[in-house]
Amino acid sequence: xxxxxxxxxxxxxxxxxxxxxxxxxxxxxxxxxxxxxxxxxxxxxxxxxxxxxxxxxxxxxxxxxxxxxxxxxxxxxxxxxxxxxxxxxxxxxxxxxxxxxxxxxxxxxxxxxxxxxxxxxxxxxxxxxxxxxxxxxxxxxxxxxxxxxxxxxxxxxxxxxxxxxxxxxxxxxxxxxxxxxxxxxxxxxxxxxxxxxxxxxxxxxxxxxxxxxxxxxxxxxxxxxxxxxxxxxxxxxxxxxxxxxxxxxxxxxxxxxxxxxxxxxxxxxxxxxxxxxxxxxxxxxxxxxxxxxxxxxxxxxxxxxxxxxxxxxxxxxxxxxxxxxxxxxxxxxxxxxxxxxxxxxxxxxxxxxxxxxxxxxxxxxxxxxxxxxxxxxxxxxxxxxxxxxxxxxxxxxxxxxxxxxxxxxxxxxxxxxxxxxxxxxxxxxxxxxxxxxxxxxxxxxxxxxxxxxxxxx
Length: 457
Known about the structure:
The chain is α/β, with parallel strands linked by helices. The protein has 15 helices and eleven strands. A five-stranded parallel β-sheet has the order 3-2-1-4-5, with helices on both faces. A two-stranded antiparallel sheet has the order 6-7. Strands 8-9 form a two-stranded antiparallel sheet. The radius of gyration is 27 Å and the shape is globular. It starts with a helix and ends in a 7-residue tail after the last helix. The relative contact order is 0.07.
């Protein structure tokens, strides 16, 4: 088991180290030997600093849990963490050089290094991850998993292990699953969990029970605490949106902060600045498109070009949201229902701009004005908010963030006449796990799969 765990770890540490050092020395070579007026004498100091630089980068990469073996590899998630860790290391390096070395180290070389290290780390990690995946497919480094318990969460976990992105997994069987057996899993019968582990020798033990089986779960967890060489994880009976929820304590009494989703002052300023700058650039670049759509709406159907509607944003405040008019103005609107497929109220131009989300573009002005953000939960009408607040627990928590032009739920297809419960799960996940890089990720996803949606009628 030790070999299976530490070989991929060794490859990642070695690869990151080589990427950092290669980018550092390449930056120094370009600055001092290729670019004009380079002081070759300064290259000696540059070489001496290489060890400090390497330690910094490995430290910050390790802090992002990039040396922890995970069941599933996500290139986007790993790349985001790598870029974040590299930026943190680079920032600390700049501060250290500024206060300790004054102008002795070339600023151009440092800037070149940051550019190179991002490229090298991403390429190196992509190559190593691909190599490890191939090794998994050949049967090397196989990770053995023992499932303990039963219920919906454990069944979902077992199905997720068969995902195409999950390689090198072998399920050893299901222990204590007599009340609800998972199809295709060998049923294991041993006196205790320790006996089952001793017989199957898993790398990971996964425990999951329904909420009503709390006592049975606690008894099994008590046995799992005695396992010394195997990792143990517990699948709690909680909604997906609770991912990211903080666990704290009051005088050693555990507390789960259900609605702890505050964004710090600096993060709020950064998010607002990004909203203003990105929206202003968007309006400038898309102005020809805005004019063309306005002209088409005006000449194809009577009524105003811009449709105004009351929506709800942060703290439950009602604001006026702008959209391109996509429906006939002579048919009254039912405020308590969403638009349905083949809705007779939708115009021909309206059907096109709704399907491609171009009708949402005037909301860029809402973002600039501050009533909306580029990224956030989709704003709903006050009538629907009042209705859903009484029907769905936790619905109002969506209003702890500004309504967004795009969002985590939208880019995952949960918009229009789809499951409201799933949409809320994604919205609450976004609120609890917000970060600036998460916003950038959603912006990127919006361009690739967020505009055209089959549920946008």
